[in-house]
Amino acid sequence: MTYRLGVDVGGTFTDVLLIDTDTGGTWRVKTASTPADQSIGVLHGIRRVCDDAGIAMADIGEVLHGTTVATNAILEQKGARVGLVTTKGFEQVLQIARSFVPGGLAGWIIWPKPEPLASLEHTVGAVERVASDGTVVTRLDEEAIRADLYRLKDAGIEALSVSLINSFANTDHEKTIGAIATEVLGNDIGVSLSSSVLPELREYERTVTTVANGYVQPQVSRYISNLQAELRDGGITGDLKILRSDGGLASADAATASPVNMLLSGPAGGVAGAAWVAQQVGHSDFLTFDMGGTSTDVALVQDGVPRIGRQTRVGDLDVRAASVDVRTVGAGGGSIAHVPQLTRALRVGPQSAGAAPGPAAYGQGGTEPTVTDANLVLGYLPSSLAGGEIALDIDAARTAVGTIADATDLGSVEAAASGIIDIVNENMFGALRLVSVQQGFDPRDFALVAFGGAGPLHANALGRLLGSWPVIIPPSPGVLCAYGDATTSLRDESARTWIRQLPDTSDPEIATAFDELAAAARTTLRAEGIDDGDMVVEFAADVRYHGQGFEIPIPVDREAFDGEGAGLAAIASAFDAEHDRLFGFLLDTTAHEVVTLRATASGPRPNVTPDTVDEGESVADATVGRHRIWVDGAHHEAVVIDRSLLGAGAVVDGPAVITEMDSTTLVLPGHIATVHPSGSLLITPTEEA
Question: What are the residue boundaries of the Acetophenone carboxylase-like C-terminal domain, all occurrences included (predicted)?
């Protein structure tokens, strides 16, 4: 009997899910994160879940891990000192960037331009030049670059990135510099080549992505190496795999070599888990709402497939890497409420109390009012969290929220707490509009899947703001990200720049290129022991109108290219439909142009038995008490429900507080929660039910 373990590390909690791969049975644990060393919290959670399952750690065959190590290195600016080698004359590529300034007119006046991840004094220009078709215009001066690398070594660089002009068309010069760098710098300093990290056109995007890879690589490498060592010391000899930003898995070695593909590792696990849950409920179009202790991540899923973007944004940094189209806002259970002296207007976040000291209610030294404190004051939370691991102090919460009441004219502590909740809900509502309305989708056409430790508390209110029904609360919503980590599959991608207008290429030519890319993508999965027959390969093309400065990724059916003209016609038709949806117009007189071809190979998903609950209609047996909650400016008496005692078909009338080990669900007055046979709660307005 073997077991598969999913681990997701958040800013406040670490979630662990253990799956019996023979029976599909699961065990779940939620424990506090340890920001100083994430592996401490990970190992603590693994030991607890193994104790619950009655197994030894040695019985675990695989560990699937979603991590924020790379993300935090960017956000906290704690990455490596990176040296950059580019073509002579292009040393300022990172400083010039795209000349984009966020905000409205004159936004540049108040916008502090972020410093590039590789400084100009650590940037050198190689004497070389390659044309866009791959021909060598100027051969590489190896002796000059060797001297420059010795200078970078003396400057104390901790990582090296190499991004030469047009290296996507000819990789020879980059590979030569990589070999010289290994000789000069030794094996302790990682070398990132743009022709391996991102073999695509556009020198700035390729350079910033390659530099970001080098910036986070040492920290990610240390973390993965230390975690592997501690897992072995604990008796786990199975493979460690890391979740990619696009929702697939990568081996530990692949994650170490290309950590830029892991920048949204944590949020991607939640979207994968939400897709699994929504499938059991019967919804293929839905929004995901993952609210943790530090931040909230939202995404849109259509036809059961998460939207994959070609840009990954972390803080002020945009890199070109495939990722689930997730938007993040600084709104979580630990978000701190404050009243600035200048405006005297209540604000919530993005600063967070995190896991240490945490909200005031945790009793660990925190004194500032947070969203968790406000929820406790309003009666939405039980007396403890995480299965009793964290006891909540209502008096401390009221004292903290009272400072907001004193600083405003809201009057009572309950009114101040309600204001905090209203503001944080509006912040998250704005993020959900970014992935729906701004992308041309009506949120009323989508369900809302809410998870994370704090998500179910705010889900009903968000459903009301969006008009998205039903609101789906999965079983064990607090550990759904770990569920996504454990139920996804290995994935790898291969891409090639292909700048051709459709009249200038042909179906057989593109078919050959797709087949070569598919073979390259399969290679990594074969190395992990996956047979070709168990792989699924998906194809895509980045397409634009000739002369446009941006592309739109379009899914492609490879078989369409086996008939002359059918594949090209399908690309043009799909691009026009997506362009019209996004922008509301077409350019009928302009030729279509393919910019990039891409193949993605995925392995099989593991055997996981869907959750089920026994039938039952009575809510009385699941009612464990009643208490007052504050909603819409008044007190209401709410029933308190133990979710584990609810049977399929049970209908809970709001107002109600439904508790479980890892989360709490709030059902507002005028709404009901119905228990689906899969175990999910479906919240809808009473009149619609």
Answer: 509-674
475 vs 484: CA distance, rounded Å: 13
Burial (0-12, 13-18, 19+ Cβ within 10 Å), 686: exposed
- For the sheet containing 592-602, what is the strand order? 491-501, 592-602, 536-545, 552-556
- Count the helix, strand and coil residues of the chain and give each as a percent rounded to the nearest 5: 40, 30, 35
**Position 390 pLDDT exceeds 70:** no
Q: How far apart, in whole angstroms, are the C-alpha atoms of residue 18 and residue 26? A: 5
- Provide the residue type at 294 as one letter: T
Q: How many CB atoms lie within 10 A of CB 234?
A: 16
* pLDDT tens-digit readout, 558-583: 998 987 778 999 999 999 999 998 88
Each residue of 239-256: b (16+ CB within 10 Å) or e?
bbbbbbbbbbbbbbebbb
| Cα 360 from chain centroid (whole Å) | 28
Helices (H), 18-171: 38-53, 69-75, 93-96, 142-154
CATH superfamily of 3-73+222-262: ATPase, nucleotide binding domain (3.30.420.40)
Model confidence pLDDT, tens digit, residues 268-290:
888 888 988 998 899 999 999 99
Q: Is 65 helix (H, G, I), strand (E, B) or coil?
A: strand
pLDDT above 90: residue 471 = yes
Q: Tens digit of pLDDT for each residue in 205-263?
A: 999 999 999 999 999 999 899 888 888 888 888 888 888 888 888 888 888 989 998 88
